[in-house]
Fold this sequence. Notes:
The structure holds 3 protein chains of 3 kinds. Chain A has helices at residues 2-34, 139-169, 174-179, 181-216, 218-223, 225-266, 270-275, 277-306, 311-326; strands spanning 40-47, 58-61, 64-75, 79-87, 99-104, 111-116, 130-133. Chain A is α/β, with parallel strands linked by helices. Chain A has 2 domains: 40-133; 139-326, no CATH class. Chain A starts with a helix and ends with a helix. Chain B is mostly helical. Chain B has one domain (25-240). In chain B, 84% of the residues lie in helices and 0% in strands. The radius of gyration of chain B is 20 Å and the shape is elongated. Chain B starts with a helix and ends with a helix. The mean pLDDT of chain B is 88. By secondary structure, chain C is α/β, with parallel strands linked by helices. Chain C has a domain at 12-101 and 170-254: Rossmann fold (3-Layer(aba) Sandwich), CATH 3.40.50. Helices cover 37% and strands 25% of the residues of chain C. Chain C has 9 helices and 10 strands. In chain C, the strands form 2 sheets. Chain C has a 6-stranded mixed β-sheet, sandwiched between helices. The two termini of chain C are 19 Å apart. At the A-B interface, α1 and α5 of A face α2, α5, α6 and α7 of B.
Amino acid sequence: MQASDNRRKITVGIFIFLGLAIFVVGVFTLGSQKKAFVNSFTVDVIFDDIQGLKSGNNVWFSGVKIGTIKKIQFYGTSQVQVFLNIEEQAHKYIHKDAAASISSDGLIGNKIIVITGGTPKFPFVEDGDRLRVNSTLSTDDIMKTFQVNNKNLVEVTSDFKILAKSLVEGKGTAGTLLTDQQVAEDFKKIVANLKNTTASANKMAAELNTFSKTLNTKGGFADKVLTDTVVFARLQSSVDELQKTAGSAAALTENLNKASAKLNQSDNAIGVLLNDQKTAEQVKAIMLNMETSSKKLDENLEALQHNFLLRGFFRKKAKAEAEGNKQ
Amino acid sequence: MFITLSDVFQFMGRFFKEAFMPPYEGRELLKQCYDIGYKSLALISLTGFITGIVFTKQSRPSLAEFGATSWLPSLVGIALLRTLAPLLTSLIAAGKVGSSIGAELGSMRVTEQIDAMEVSATNPFKFLVSTRVMACTITIPILTFYTALVGMLGALLNVAMSEGTSARLFFQASLESITFLDITASTIKAVLFGFTIGVVGCYQGYYSSKGTEGVGKAANSSVVIGMFLIFIEEVVSVQFFGLFRT
Amino acid sequence: MVSKTTDIDREKVIEIKGLHKSFGDYQVLRGVDLDLYKRENLVVLGKSGTGKSVLIKIIVGLLTPDAGEVKVLGRIVDQISYRELLELRLKVGFSFQNSALYDSMTVRENLEFPLVRNQRRLTRGEVNSAVEEMLDAVGLLQTINQMPSELSGGQRKRIGIARTLILRPEIMLYDEPTAGLDPITCLEINSLINEVQERFHTSSIIITHDLTCAKAVGDRVAMLLDGRFERQGTFEEVFATDDQRVKPFYDYNFIQ
Lengths: 327, 246, 256
């Protein structure tokens, strides 16, 4: 009886010990994954919009998880202050001028904070520092940019149509334009700019094409989250480029407007154009390019409209337009 | 069938009073831990293992529709560690342990064994009730840990055979969406469920009515009321711990 | 028949005055007065359901009285603290009608149970020898490692009495000690009760409806009628009456 009592004691002891061991190992495994027991420091960032970020979400730097979001609170009137818990180890890679942005670890994945940039001429971040915000574009922003860009291109094209028409009809005086060296130079520069713009617009259009194709093949897209991330990154970079393009296109349009105004005013630009065969051809080529690219952009928009992710946006837009038309 | 709340609270109050006041019934507590905990281990582990396999198997088709079978580990991890492990363990324990406590104490009451303890100057509440309630409160969480582990192993087995996922990747992915709050909540729930099983079983048995019918009723209502309360507590605790999630 | 009029000390160990107890609307005890003197065997007779068991359960504090006073060894049972009650219970042994042995324990563990729980300083050897001595006293030393379910009714009764005696109580309360036993075993139990009284110098209340038993062990007999002890005295005194509530009782047992 005494012996069985002891055996029972040992059995219960082992039973409870193993149970607790499972618990402790579980907690430590979880802890090492959450980096709970790693020395860390805190920095904060102030965003206008955190897009549903939650505390516990990951913080990435160069694609490596270096911490988690510790706390989120309102700041000022409508901003949000986000505290990041960053591993001590990552300390010597992040500089004070690094910027944080909100991103996602997959198209339908969790929100994350991505820390980018930072130059060696700045010292390393310290506990309690505040990082800059690198604002990112939401889908809405992307679509807005597309729209503006497209409009600009159409405008530019129509301007050129008028100009070309005038050229063909032989309006204006050649003499004045010849002597007006300044205008000619300006014009050349504009043409060069325009060439660049169209080239990048073309490239971007191609990229967008691939992107929307990937989006439209549903099965393949969800299958490979990794590919999605790449595509998303590419989309972001093309949006960046688009923005640049839009910017330069806007500047260009302005320039062109000035130039054509001048041409119309002084009535003498035509000569130089007529004589300068090369310039004329360039202008024609540009026009062609522009037409193609604006067409492509239209196509892209069309494709995007059919994409299931962005369908909602277009529906909203169409509705808004319809309402606008009614009024 | 439903018992008056004030009686139960009085009963619980008496448990806390008696359980933490000397003399302690260490040997009896050990025996109860052995009977309630260790003897339920095989049954509960087996159930956990099967649940892990079946749950994973059944979840696969719906995830496969999105091509997201790679999310299986995290889905199983959340389901098992947050809810299934404590709930499953407690429900099985309510059936196995609750009924046996109810029947044992009930028959002891009916055959005057409880009175016999009382008149031999032993506090039967301390000896019978406190030890059993404590043993339940201690061993159900322990059993829950076993269930969680074994259930995860079952899920791993299934995932490894179908998707060829490695154990390392499996645990990494499944723990990815688990927080400390989840584990704390599960542990607290398991403690609460264990306490409930013990209190309900002991209450029903200790105050069972005379006659053999009373024993059957005590055993039966230990299980029915125990399971019912466990579900209620599950719902309430999900709400409660939801307050801590941001 | 053994003559039981030994030198009885007139000191009262139990005094009951005006005891009332009812369950719901059913009044079981309606003003019970009863005294138990030191070293006496008092037999309480009565039909089933007349509240005999209720009476002794009140004496050990398992039930509380509605009215009246129960004084055991100078203490009023329902007015002392739980700790004092436990101390008092050490001195009052209670033998249950169906023995109430702990099913999950062996005979040895059954006997040890009250002992190790109340005298924690005893060594293993002391406990063992006390258990063996007591089992020997009831003549069942050979059953020491058996489970209660393996014993006969008479054996269970004896083990139950041994378990009660192991704490060396001053007062013994027997609840239907011969119920459900064959006549021969009844006789054995009767002589055991007398032996206990002689050997351990206990004062006892024996509850029964078995007149053979009452005659064999009772120094004094009290008959519970309509919730009161209307007739007390020696066995012969109690039954020297034509009371229609008493006579059938006697007739059933002795006229066959």
